[in-house]
Design brief:
With about 200 residues, the chain is of the alpha/beta class. The protein folds into two domains: about 100 residues, Response regulator (Rossmann fold); about 70 residues, Winged helix-like DNA-binding domain superfamily/Winged helix DNA-binding domain (Arc Repressor Mutant, subunit A, Orthogonal Bundle), CATH 1.10.10.10. Helices cover about 50% and strands about 10% of the residues. It contains six helices and five strands. Strands 2-1-3-4-5 form a five-stranded parallel beta sheet, with helices on one face. Helix 2 links the parallel strand 4 and strand 5. Helix 3 packs across helix 5 and helix 4 packs across helix 6. It is elongated. The two termini are about 45 Å apart. The relative contact order is 0.10.
Length: about 200
């Protein structure tokens, strides 16, 4: 399946703690690419970052770097600028969960590549997290279904398949998923068991 090209024009980027020279080069590239940049000398507040879509920060800035302090990053793709390759500094940069990086000093090439990779990486991670969340929700729902099935088997003296089919039929009658009905049954057993008992006496 084809993927959409990453769009730069109109992109809102926050630049944090970078040198004046790097800020100037980034600003020039932003103008060329149609990017809207905001530059912060210190780590901005949550309110200041509202509306931003991507962040660039100086990974070598001592005002940002702290071996144990976790910066309050918003859920945005991040690019680190760095010129240092000491293990402690690289470890700290990776702990910020960056999506791309650029070597300092910023030059007139490499910005498009870094931004494209960062946006694409963030999109992929977001997609994977959404898929994982759905799978976790399905697993939780299956647990409720299993518990409801055991309850129906014990209360109505039915076999495994019979209990499942009864739950499915009740769910269809109520226009809900079998997992949703299972949650309802477990939360409010008596009335739902009465409904299931009535269905069980009918001919399938």
């Amino acid at each position: 399946m084809s993927r959409k090209n990453v769009q730069m024009r109109g992109l809102k980027v926050g630049v944090i703690g970078c040198s004046e020279r790097d800020n100037q080069h980034l600003a020039q590239q932003f103008t060329r690419m149609g990017i809207v940049g905001k530059f912060y000398s210190l780590f901005p507040s949550e309110a200041q970052l509202v509306g931003q879509q991507l962040l660039v920060f100086d990974g070598d800035n001592p005002a940002l770097f702290h071996p144990t302090h976790k910066l309050p990053w918003p859920a945005l793709p991040k690019i680190a600028l760095t010129a240092m390759e000491t293990p402690s500094r690289l470890q700290w940069i990776t702990e910020q969960r960056i999506d791309s990086y650029m070597r300092k000093p910023v030059r007139f090439d490499g910005v498009m590549t870094a931004f494209t990779l960062a946006l694409d990486s963030a999109a992929r991670i977001s997609q994977l997290e959404t898929q994982l969340k759905r799978q976790e929700e399905r697993l939780r729902a299956r647990k409720h279904l299993f518990s409801a099935q055991i309850l129906v088997m014990n209360e109505l003296q039915l076999g495994e398949d019979e209990a499942y089919n009864l739950l499915r039929r009740a769910a269809m009658d109520q226009h809900m998923t079998i997992e949703h009905l299972s949650c309802q049954l477990l939360d409010n057993k008596t009335p739902w068991l009465n409904v299931l008992k009535a269905l069980a006496t009918e001919k399938y």
